[in-house]
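Dissemination and training. As part of the outreach component of the grant, students in the summer workshop were shown how a complex can be specified as a set of sequence lines and then modelled as a single object. The example used during the hands-on session is reproduced here so that future cohorts can follow it. Participants entered these lines:
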Amino acid sequence: MSIFKKIMTAVRGGASEAGEAIIDANATRIFEQEIRDAENHLTKAKRDLTGVVAEQMAAQRDVERLNREIAEHEGYAGQALEKGDEALALAVAEKIATLESELATQQQALASYTGNADRLKELVKKSERQVAEHKRQLSMVKTTESVQKATSAITDNFSSSNSKLLSAKDSLERIKAKQQKFDDKMKAAEMLESEDSDVSLAAQLKAAGIGAQDSSANSVLDRIKAKQK
Amino acid sequence: MNIHTIADHLNSLADNSDTGMSFDCQPISGEVDVLQISIIGREEIPVFVSVTEDQILCISYLWGVDEVKSDSIAAMHESMLEMNIPMPLSSFSKIGDKYVIFGALSINSSYSDVEHELAVLSNNALEVIDDMSDYLN
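and obtained this result:
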């Protein structure tokens, strides 16, 4: 059964009760051990790979050197023949034969190292994918458990704090009302501010003797005198 | 990154958060540490944050199964599924008999990522309740 299905079954089957584990702790520990083992294998495989690649490079260098030496000696043999020194040419040819047999051995070794390196590289890649996949599955199990534990902590906290759980709609209404109140306050503050600035402007105008002036006793007396006429 | 460092960061923001929101953090102890984060003015719908080995989970409870109009549950599920992708950063889930909205962040996220996540999650939660209110009692 896939981890996904196990989680589904456990959650649906009421294992969501606090404290009850999705997959028993022992199975989780075994799984964690398996991941650690796989990681150890991976480390070892990578070390082996380094060794094999080093040998592969050495074999490659030997093959190149032998090829170079063979070409060189073929040149010598040709020169010996040109000089008519058949015996020397034969000696060089013998050397070439030795080099060629050495080359064959090295080529065989190189092919074997290359094969090994390819195989190990494939193995490392496969193991890395497997470890990543196991880790993902373990993370799913652990997250599900963590969410369940967190939920039970939250629920306990709610019931102990006596706070009544509101319905979603009521909560939203309250939040909106608070927002409205806040907006109203902002608006009121803005209005007050603009009124304040009106007042201060009027005061400035009055001080400058512009606009309506306070009625003074003199101006009242003038008005009464004017009526009596 | 753990719930205490997140709380320290959010508290240190005070009124100067990039999101313009003020966060009030309260740790809840239990088998798993949970941080209850109330956003000022939105105390009714808090966000709960828990940190696991590889991720930071931010969850808000939306409504209970018992709040859904009995003949609307299938239509509501469909609307929620359809909204899941368009809704920025958050997704729906169900824990027990409660519908939730949540966002998961990598454990390597920055504090400002967490702050942004909380703001978006809270906005999404309010909007979803508003949009889904026809299905709710």
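The two ends of chain A are 115 Å apart (CA to CA). Students were then asked to discuss how this feature might be tested experimentally.
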